[in-house]
């Protein structure tokens, strides 16, 4: 059974354009009513469409249009994120507002981050599930290196305490 496509007005272009939960954009003007706009990819691979209002053309990313219409305005400090990492998959169920760290974590999860191919940290400790965690910036960290830093910090504190005593 197929679900019906849901359409909502494009925020800021109400009465002129509509966007669907499947990532389609159509004109709602009297002379091109219902005509689907053909998205083009920008230099970074994201799909965008050309929207006209008051005689001015503006390019808008399709995933932003979908999120604004169906989820709401972008929260402060957030950006659009694709769950599956595919920049051209603008279906609502593949999109969400996320922090920059969440977006980086997605690239790591999908194996697309430049460091995701690394199998060991700079000191040679293996990036195994038990020895790896993701920090607040979304960067992969080595637990063994973290333990080494904590031990060194404790040694310095003990040495300073002995000198003070």
Automatic annotation (TrEMBL):
GO MF term (any one): hydrolase activity, acting on ester bonds
InterPro entries from the xrefs?
Answer: His-Me_finger_sf, HNH_nuc, NUMOD4
Q: Indicate whether Hydrolase appears among the record's keywords.
A: yes
Please list the residue ranges annotated as the NUMOD4 domain: 5-52
Q: Which residues form the HNH nuclease domain?
A: 60-104
Hydrolase as a keyword? yes
Report the domain of life of the source organism.
Bacteria
Keyword list (alphabetical) reads: Endonuclease, Hydrolase, Nuclease
What protein name applies here?
HNH endonuclease
Q: Which organism is it from?
A: Haloactinospora alba
């Amino acid at each position: 059974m197929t679900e019906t496509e849901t359409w909502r007005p494009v925020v800021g272009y109400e009465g002129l354009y509509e966007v669907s939960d499947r990532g389609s954009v159509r004109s709602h003007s009297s002379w091109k009513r219902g005509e689907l706009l053909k998205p083009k990819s920008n230099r970074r691979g994201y799909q965008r469409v050309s929207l006209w209002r008051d005689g001015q053309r503006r390019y808008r990313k399709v995933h932003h249009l979908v999120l604004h219409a169906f989820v709401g305005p972008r929260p402060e400090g957030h950006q659009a994120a694709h769950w599956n990492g595919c920049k051209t998959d603008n279906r609502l169920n593949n999109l969400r507002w996320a922090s920059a760290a969440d977006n980086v974590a997605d690239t790591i999860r999908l194996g697309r981050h430049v460091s995701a191919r690394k199998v060991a940290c700079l000191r040679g400790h293996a990036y195994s599930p038990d020895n790896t965690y993701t920090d607040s910036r979304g960067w992969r960290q080595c637990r063994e290196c973290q333990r080494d830093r904590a031990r060194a910090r404790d040694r310095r504190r003990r040495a300073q305490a002995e000198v003070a005593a």
